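Re-run with default settings, no changes from the original entry. Doing this only to confirm the output is reproducible before filing.
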Amino acid sequence: MRTCNLTGKVMVRRLLQTWGFVIYLLVPTSIVSYLISPDLVELGIFAAAVGALATLMHQSWRVGLWQVCIFAVLGYLAALASPYPVLGGLLMAVCGVALGLCSRWAWQYSAFLMPILLIAILINPIPATQADVTAHTLATQGGGIAASTFFVLLAAGLLSLLLCLPILHHMNSKHAPMKLPGLAPEVSWYYAIVLGILLGLATWFVLAYERVPDMSWLLLTLVLLLNPTSKLSTKKAIVRTVGTLVGSLIAVLIALIPSHGVVVVITILLTGAATVVVFDTANRYWLWIVLWTPSIILLTSQSTNIIAATEFRLGMTVVAGAIVLGIAFAVLKLHPKRLHEVGFV
């Protein structure tokens, strides 16, 4: 197991490199997105993240291009399906199946961002409003919103590819692309079916009964926790729940600090530490969760509702963890012989 043996100097250098890359990537893509549609800048950031992750993880601009184009089309469909819970659930079910099948070739490590970000588009296709968008508004203006979504996602995603090309050239000159092992066909199909059903039903429920932006936390957690093997799903569900509990307590304690400036500084430091940890401590998922949870809560919540946001997200994490544990337990109880042979249980 690789451990974290980072000196202070290395950590500072990694932190500066990370923030430099974020600024280098997001400022141009945000400007282009704003020029297309001022209300959809957040979606441009989504597309930049998808394009950059796929391009750099696979060290291939072609993989990045494919994922950007697919994400733009799926974003268009998500904006159209947003007013209709059944259609939204079907779209996410298809995405879940597709993501599960990607595990056959280990592509799910870069593609996992797409269903997570599509959930946000389904719940609120106009992120800049930061308010509940009525089904009537989405139904009457859906065509225009969907078209704008498509062009923002495509333009920002393609720009992110261009920005990553110099970095990609440097990476390819240093070492060969990373080869990740895929899963056996039986495992990937089983995983795809379970993930598709879970995402489809969860999305339908959220769109039909709880259409609020914060509910994306539940669906995001489901995507992250459900893994191709039931043992890994069980481990991540427990670690994620405990880590979120500890991280939530940290967020509440930070929120009690009277000085807003101190809170901002602590938030930046936590975010930076979480970023360094995720790249330098494989097999330390718990530490990343403990650091990242308060960072996300503090970054996305107003100072007056940090405690309420913490309680809600902790609750959604517990619910998602219980669902994934239930699925893992059911698989372990069923334990088809062939799944044992290929390592699913």
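The two ends are 22 Å apart (CA to CA). The chain has two domains: 14-213, 229-345.
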